[in-house]
Amino acid sequence: MQSQENFILRKATPADQAVIWEIVQQAILRRKNDGSSQWQDGYPNPDTIREDIENGFGYIFEIDGETAAYSALIFNNEPAYENIDGKWLSDNDFLVIHRVAVSDGFLGKGIASKLFLEIENFAKQQQVFSIKLDTNFDNLAMLKILEKLNYTYCGEVYFRGSARKAFEKLLR
């Protein structure tokens, strides 16, 4: 990849659904191959992606016009975050990041980190200065990214019956 890459974060449209699902399936297989239990129970699925797009939550990260990654971005709405075994850094408006998936064709190029930095810029443009997210205890790739980008471990939240590590980053 050239250093002159052009990347944008944009809202996904119904026309993007097939490529998003392909990327998410690649991520599901990677989680399995890494020995992670995350995303191994039928979630996320094509309906999840369709609902993300319909609700305006789905976002594509494009590099030089090619879809490199996908994520759901949701402002101020994650019921599971209301009950944390721990403490969030803030009680202000926040942006939730869910369903981060990078295309196999872009692995090993720091795309997830670039995606997170672009999401942070997006949040600030919306005057939101807190990002919250969660991940499985065994998603080592995501845990490494969160550490690298200075996300703070805040405790545990519970999704569909299992504990997940919760993180927050306050933006400046």
Note the topology.
Layout: E1 7-11, H1 17-33, H2 46-54, E2 58-63, E3 66-75, E4 85-86, E5 95-102, H3 111-125, E6 130-135, H4 140-148, E7 152-159, E8 162-170
Parallel strand pairs: 5-6
Antiparallel strand pairs: 1-2, 2-3, 3-5, 4-7, 6-8, 7-8
Describe the fold and architecture:
- It comes from Chryseobacterium manosquense.
- Residues 7-172 form the N-acetyltransferase domain.
- Keywords: Transferase.
- The chain is α+β, with helices and mostly antiparallel strands.
- The protein has one domain: Gcn5-related N-acetyltransferase (GNAT) (Aminopeptidase, 3-Layer(aba) Sandwich).
- Helix content is 29%, strand content 31%.
- The chain contains 4 helices and 8 strands, in the order βααββββαβαββ.
- The protein has helices spanning 17-33, 46-54, 111-125, 140-148; strands at 7-11, 58-63, 66-75, 85-86, 95-102, 130-135, 152-159, 162-170.
- The chain has an 8-stranded mixed β-sheet.
- A hairpin with a 2-residue loop joins strand 2 and strand 3 (66-75).
- The mean pLDDT is 94.
Structural class: alpha+beta
In the sheet with the most strands, the strands line up as 1-2-3-5-6-8-7-4
Distance between the termini: 30 Å
Helix percent band: 25-40%
The CATH topology is what?
Aminopeptidase
CATH superfamily: Gcn5-related N-acetyltransferase (GNAT)
